[in-house]
Design brief:
There is one protein chain. The chain has one domain: YVTN repeat-like/Quinoprotein amine dehydrogenase (Methylamine Dehydrogenase, Chain H, 7 Propeller), CATH 2.130.10. 14% of the residues lie in helices and 34% in strands. The protein contains 6 helices and 29 strands. A 5-stranded antiparallel sheet has the order 1-10-9-8-7. It has a 4-stranded antiparallel sheet with strand order 2-29-28-27, with no helix packed on it. The chain is elongated. The relative contact order is 0.12. About 9% of the residues have low confidence. Keywords: DNA damage, DNA-binding, Repeat, WD repeat. Belongs to the WD repeat DDB2/WDR76 family. One of its GO terms (cellular component) is nucleus.
C-alpha cells in the first residue's frame, strides 16, 4: 500500500471512511449474521424442490383466426396453386380453432345433446320430429322393392329417361336453409316426401321440408350439434329416424328422432373428412380420419372394429357399389381415386382393385346408379369416367373445377341412371356431362340463381328432382315441368 504521505486529500478521506465503516460492521456483527443466513438458505434448498413459475397466460380466443397472406409476400409466383388441393379456408379455420383450444372436451363432458338444446331455429321442431317418425312407420315396400333393393335410381337403364330441357327451377323451390357455406346436402330417402338435410361450415344441420303446410311456416329447422364444419351426412332408407353427421373437429353424432337426441357416437383428436354407410348394413359407419385412414365403426360393439391406412393423404369421399356393396370407392387429396374389395383388404399393405390417377387432389369418386361406372372429380380440371369389367377403361373430360377459397369444391354426381353427371360451374349454372359423348352437353340456368351451386344430390325416388347447395346457405331444387 502506498504511504499516507503520497496520498491526496481525497484518497486519505476515502480510506478513513472505509476504516470507519468496517469498525461499525464489526461492532454490529453483520458479517457473522450474513454467514448464518447464507448457511440456513443452503440447508433449506437441499430439502425442497423449487419450480419456476411461468407468467399467467391469457386465454386464447375461441373464434378461428385466419391469416391471409398474398402469394407475393410468400415468395410464390402469381400462378401458384396447392398441388394437393386442400379444402381451402374451411379446413384452415377448423385447424386454427382446434389448435387454439387448450384441451379437447371428452365425450363424457359433451355427452348426448337433446334436440331441444341443439335447436336454434324459430318456433318449435316438434312438427319435424313427428313428420320424420311418421314417415319411418310406413311399410318398407314404399321405399323400394320388397327385397330391400333400394331406390328408383338406375331403373331407367342406359338411355335417358327425361328431357334435360324439362328441368326447371321454380321460386317456391328456393330457400336459405342455413347460414354460411353448405358442405353437404342430402335428400331424405323417402318416396312420398320432399325433404332436404344440409350441413354447413359452422356445425349447423338444417332441415327443409319443401312440402310444408301452413303449420310449419317456411318448413326450415336449424340445429347446432357440432363445433366445426360438417363433413358428412348419412341417412339409411330403412332407418329414417337415425341421421348420422360428422364434423372436421373429430366428432360423429347420431340424431335419433325417437329419443329426440343427438347422441355422441365417436370422438377423435384427428379430423374426420367423410362419412358413408353401405346400403345393406345399417349397423356400421365408414368414415375417414386424419391422413388416409379409413375406420369402420360397429354399432353392435360400440367401437371401431377395423382400421385401414388406404391413402397418403386425406380421404374426401367414400362410396359403395349398388350391385356389390363389398366394392368401395375412395377419393383422396393424394391425387388418386381407388376401388377396393372389402373382403380382401390387407391390414398391413392394402392394395386397391383399381386406381384412377389425377394430377391434383381428387374431391370425389361416385359409382353410377347401375354400378358400371365410376366418376371422379379433381382439382386438375378434369372429370374422370372409369368403366369396363374391371373399370380398366378411363377417360378424362375437361371441366373448370377451380372454385377458389370461398366456395366448396365441385363434385360431379350421377343422376337417376348412367346417362348424365351433374356438376356446378362458376357462372351460376349446372353443367350436364354425358359420359357417352365425353363432354358437357347441357347447362341448367335460371335468373333466380343468385349464387354458385357447388354441392348436389339427386332424389333417390323422384326422377328429375335435383338439389343444389351454395356457399351462401341457399338450396335450389330443380324439378320436371
Amino acid at each position: 500500500m502506498a504511504s499516507s504521505e503520497n496520498l491526496t486529500e481525497y484518497e486519505r478521506k476515502r480510506l478513513e471512511n472505509i476504516l470507519r465503516n468496517d469498525q461499525m460492521m464489526a461492532a454490529l456483527k453483520l458479517q457473522s449474521r450474513a454467514s448464518e443466513l447464507s448457511a440456513s438458505s443452503k440447508r433449506q434448498r437441499v430439502g425442497t424442490k423449487s419450480y419456476k413459475m411461468s407468467p399467467e397466460k391469457k386465454p386464447k380466443t375461441e373464434t378461428p383466426i385466419v391469416i391471409r397472406r398474398s402469394l407475393r409476400t410468400r415468395g410464390m409466383p402469381p400462378d401458384y396453386s396447392d398441388s394437393k388441393g386442400q379444402e381451402d379456408i374451411v379446413e384452415t379455420a377448423a385447424k386454427v380453432a382446434k389448435s387454439s383450444t387448450p384441451s379437447k372436451p371428452s365425450p363424457s363432458d359433451l355427452g348426448p345433446l337433446s334436440t331441444r338444446d341443439a335447436y336454434c331455429g324459430t318456433g318449435s321442431d316438434k312438427v319435424l320430429i313427428e313428420r320424420v317418425l311418421g314417415v319411418s312407420r310406413k311399410p318398407h315396400e314404399e321405399f323400394g322393392d320388397k327385397n330391400g333393393g333400394g331406390s328408383m335410381r338406375g331403373a331407367c337403364g342406359s338411355g335417358s329417361c327425361m328431357e334435360l330441357g324439362a328441368l326447371s327451377l321454380k321460386p317456391e323451390n328456393i330457400a336459405r336453409v342455413v347460414p354460411g357455406r353448405i358442405m353437404n346436402v342430402r335428400f331424405f330417402p323417402c318416396k312420398d316426401s320432399r325433404m332436404v338435410v344440409v350441413g354447413n361450415k359452422f356445425g349447423n344441420v338444417g332441415f327443409w321440408n319443401v312440402d310444408c303446410d301452413t303449420e310449419e311456416k317456411d318448413g326450415i329447422y336449424l340445429y347446432h350439434p357440432h363445433p366445426g364444419p360438417i363433413s358428412g351426412i348419412s341417412i339409411q332408407q330403412h332407418c329414417l329416424p337415425k341421421i348420422f353427421t360428422s364434423c372436421y373437429d373429430g366428432f360423429i353424432r347420431l340424431m335419433d328422432a325417437e329419443k329426440e337426441v343427438f347422441d355422441l357416437v365417436y370422438s377423435s383428436d384427428d379430423t374426420i373428412y367423410s362419412l358413408s354407410q353401405r346400403l345393406d348394413d345399417v349397423k356400421c359407419l365408414y368414415f375417414s380420419e386424419g391422413h388416409g385412414v379409413l375406420n369402420i365403426w360397429d354399432e353392435r360393439i360400440g367401437k371401431c372394429s377395423t382400421q385401414w391406412n388406404l391413402h397418403g393423404h386425406r380421404i374426401n369421399s367414400i362410396d359403395f357399389n349398388s350391385e356389390n356393396s363389398n366394392v368401395m370407392a375412395t377419393s383422396s387429396s393424394d391425387g388418386t381415386a381407388c376401388i377396393w374389395d372389402l373382403r380382401s383388404i390387407a391390414a398391413d399393405q392394402p392394395k386397391p382393385l383399381k386406381e384412377v390417377s389425377h394430377q391434383r387432389a381428387v374431391q370425389s369418386a361416385y359409382f353410377s346408379p347401375s354400378g358400371s361406372f365410376l366418376a371422379t372429380t379433381s382439382m386438375d380440371d378434369r372429370v374422370g369416367i372409369a368403366s369396363g369389367i374391371n373399370f380398366d377403361n378411363t377417360v378424362m373430360i375437361k371441366h373448370d373445377n377451380q372454385t377458389g377459397r370461398w366456395i366448396s369444391s365441385f363434385r360431379a354426381i350421377w343422376g337417376w341412371d348412367d346417362s348424365y353427371l351433374f356438376i356446378g360451374n362458376m357462372k351460376r349454372g349446372v353443367d350436364v356431362i354425358s359420359p357417352a359423348q365425353r363432354r358437357t352437353i347441357f347447362t341448367l340456368q335460371s335468373p333466380d340463381v343468385s349464387a354458385i351451386p357447388c354441392r348436389f344430390d339427386a332424389h333417390p325416388y323422384n326422377v328429375g328432382m335435383l338439389a343444389g347447395a351454395t356457399s351462401g346457405g341457399q338450396v335450389y331444387i330443380w324439378t320436371l315441368g
